[in-house]
Description:
Blueprint: E1 3-6, E2 24-26, H1 29-36, E3 40-42, E4 46-51, E5 55-60, E6 63-72, E7 75-82, E8 85-97, E9 100-104, H2 105-108, E10 112-117
Parallel strand pairs: 1-3
Antiparallel strand pairs: 1-4, 2-8, 3-10, 4-5, 5-6, 6-7, 7-8, 8-9, 9-10
Amino acid sequence: xxxLSLTLGCAAALIAGxxxxxxxxxxxxxxxxxxxxGKTLSRPLIKIEVSEDGSIxxxxxxWAATGDWMWRDGFxxxxxxxxxxxxxxxxxxxxxxxxxxRFTSDRGAGDxxxxxxx
Length: 118
């Protein structure tokens, strides 16, 4: 089983991001897996493993992060627990370009978090 590293920002640190024309929409699970396969998605202080089997595990700051994900209707949909608190289920738009990826909550209508692909 290949594990894919994903670094997520703390829930409180997520900020609204403007749409960026240079970021291409990722609309399929296979494209998403190709994008992050073998890469670390980095954001300060947080590292999470996103597995092909649909599990999420890691740390956010000093707290454990766990959850599950699936690809549904063109979106990355996840349930996440961070530091023992349920962050809930959310489907997120994924966009990427040249070494970076952006997740935007609420099917692209909410807050965004950007990550470097290393």
